[in-house]
Each structure stands twice: as C-alpha cells, then as structure tokens.
Design goal:
Largest sheet: 3 strands, antiparallel
Number of helices: 8
Helix content: 40-55%
Order of helices and strands: EEHHHHHEEHEEEEEHH
Number of strands: 9
Strand order of the largest sheet: 5-7-6
Distance between the termini: 134 Å
Length: 366
C-alpha cells in the first residue's frame, strides 16, 4: 500500500494512501460532496479546540500574575502585623489596623498618661484664677434671682386668677336692673357707624364689639396651633385647650378661654346679669357691678373671657420665662463642668511666664 505525508496541527504525519476501493469511492461523483463536507467540519473542530486552548493558557497566566501581586500585598500586611504593641511592657505584635495587641494595653497606656500629666495640669489650673469661671458664677447668681422673681410673679398670678373667679361669681349674684340712661345712649348711637378691623365692613356702633368678636373667631378658626404632646404643668389650671384632633393627630395649643374652635359661647339667658366690676378713671375700682342684662350690655361684651385670657397670658409668659432660665442655667453649668474636666485639662494648658504674677487677666488702663 502506498504512503503519503499529511499535515496535522501537531506536525507532519505519514499515513497510508487510499486503497483501490477507496479511490473508487472517492472518484464516485455521488459520494464526493459528503466527503468534502466531513473534512471541512473536522478542520473547523480542530481550529476551535486550538483557540480554546490558547484562551485557557492566557487565563492561567493572568491568574499567576494576580497571585504574585497578592502575595506581595500579604507580605506587606504581615510586616505591619509584626509591629510591636505600644502598651507598657508589652512585647506582643499589634492587631491589624491597631497600635495595640488588645484593649487592655491601650487602657493601661491611657491610664499611665493621665497619672503622669493630670496632677501637673490641676496644679496649674489652681494657681491661676479663671475669669470665665467667675463670670459663670455671676451668671448663675443672676439666673437664680430671676428664677425666684418669676416664681413669685407666677404665684401672684395664680392668686389673681382665683380672685378673678371670685369676682365673676360675685357679679353673677347681682340683681338685674335696666338703666334708662344707657338705653337712651344706645338709642342715640343707632346711626353711628364704625369699620371692622378684621373684615373692613361698616358696622353699627351698638353691635360693633359683637361683630368684631365673631369676625375674629371666624378667621382664627382657619389657622391651627398644635403639638404632638399634651401639656403637663404642675399647679397650672385652665391654661391650654389640649383638645385632640384625630385628623392632624395633634393637641390644640390655644388658650382654653380664647379657643374659638373648641370652646363655643353658650346661649345667654334673659335673666343673666352682666356683672362687670365698674371702675372710675380707668384704674380706680369702685366696688360696684354692672347690673344690666348681659344680653343687652354692649359696653362689657365678653368681659369675663377677656379678663381670664389676660390672666392666663401673664401666667404663660411667666412659665416661658422659667423655661428659658432653666435652659440658660443648664448651658452655664455644662460649660463650667467641661472647662475643668479631664479632657479640657489634658488638651489645654496655660503657660505662666512670670511666676510672681498670679492673675493673668489683662488690666484695663485707667
């Protein structure tokens, strides 16, 4: 059988030539095309396998280079780990990302530093007087005086509150009597007009106060004053409205007396007296009361509500003043404690250049 040399991806190779029967088949026209297609498919498979092997070799080379780089980094980390701990008398290596081998070593070193530096700083602090400390003491004294004054003022307002309730009760016990002079004055003022301060409409003088009160209440209902928490003040009675609104989920923070949304005015009966205490020259109390029917009295319209609101407003201002004074006292005390605290003494230092002068404050030239 004759031999021939054939090219293979691994090299040249000698293979036997076709036999007579193979040559006959190869020369057959019907089987010629399938044989050529089979050879092409075999060549494509060989090329694809060769490319796959090349890609695998490249990936292996990349992995090897990354491993070498990673080993370099780990060596550097190992060197950092091998640093000695800074703790007193410790010979162990540090933890990764720390200067100490354990938390105990760090605490021991910090304690040794405090014992070494803190006593000297305390002596320096005690030698030179601190002007800020003196000012803080003066501010605390002033705050305490203001707190006492506001407490006494609040007690006076509470007494005034009870006195007003007693006056209102005495006024209601008066007998009703219609005065002809007031009726004449009301008849004379029928044609007098005045403009409302809220809506600007022209209103009769006789019903001006009633109109202004209702008009103001109508516009006041459009705005809301609320808080998420109810008011809890010791010893305070009838201060805020504190009605819970389920829509806004808040408590009303208007004065209970003046809240137009949750405190509606009741119907005034015909036999109810006005009961407003009469005064002379605006401030001199006469001891007498207005005995006109409350429904007809236009001079003292809503006097009870306005007097109560005035007293409640003064009480509320006193409570706000007390709250501000408590916040000021807290700030001053925290500043005084932080000034002579451990951290401040360790971080700051006052250098006294002249040992003879103890007061380091700058003297103002006279």
């Amino acid at each position: 059988m004759p031999w021939c040399s054939v090219w293979d991806p691994q090299g040249w190779e000698c293979k036997p030539w076709m036999s007579e029967t193979d040559e006959f088949l190869f020369l057959d026209r019907v089987l010629q095309k399938p044989a050529v297609n089979v050879k092409k498919m075999e060549n494509l498979k060989i090329k694809v396998e060769w490319k796959v092997t090349e890609m695998k070799e490249k990936k292996q080379k990349q992995k090897l280079t990354e491993k070498w780089k990673h080993t370099d980094r780990t060596d550097a980390k190992d060197l950092a780990v091998l640093r000695q701990c800074l703790g007193p008398g410790c010979v162990y290596p540090t933890r990764p990302g720390s200067k100490y081998c354990s938390d105990d070593c760090g605490m021991k070193l910090a304690a040794d530093r405090i014992y070494e530096i803190l006593p000297k700083r305390i002596q320096q602090w005690q030698k030179s007087p601190c002007i800020a400390e003196e000012q803080g003491k003066k501010m605390l004294e002033r705050i305490h005086r203001e707190q006492q004054d506001t407490h006494t003022r609040l007690k006076d307002m509470e007494c005034h509150f009870h006195e007003l309730e007693a006056i209102i009760l005495r006024g209601k016990q008066q007998a009703v009597c219609e005065d002809e002079e007031t009726n004449k004055s009301n008849r004379n003022n029928v044609n007098l007009q005045i403009f409302c301060v809220t809506c600007g409409q022209s209103v009769n003088m006789r019903v001006a106060l009633r109109h202004m009160e209702h008009c103001f209440a109508k516009y006041e209902c459009k705005s809301s004053f609320g808080s998420m928490y109810p008011t809890c003040i010791e010893g305070a009675t009838r201060l805020f409205c504190d009605v819970y609104d389920p829509k806004s989920k808040r408590y009303c923070k208007r004065l209970q007396v003046l809240c137009p949304e949750h405190s509606r005015d009741t119907k005034i009966p015909d036999d109810e007296v006005c009961g407003c205490p009469l005064v002379h020259n605006v401030f001199e109390v006469t001891g007498n009361f207005c005995c006109l029917p409350k429904r007809l009295c236009n001079l003292h319209y809503c006097w009870e509500k306005l007097r109560r609101a005035e007293v409640d407003l003064e009480r509320l201002r006193a409570l706000h003043k007390l709250e501000e004074l408590v916040e000021q006292e807290h700030k001053v005390r925290t500043a005084m404690t932080n000034r002579a605290g451990l951290l401040a003494l360790m971080l700051h230092q006052t250098i006294q250049h002249d040992p003879l002068t103890t007061d380091l404050r700058s003297k103002v030239d006279s």
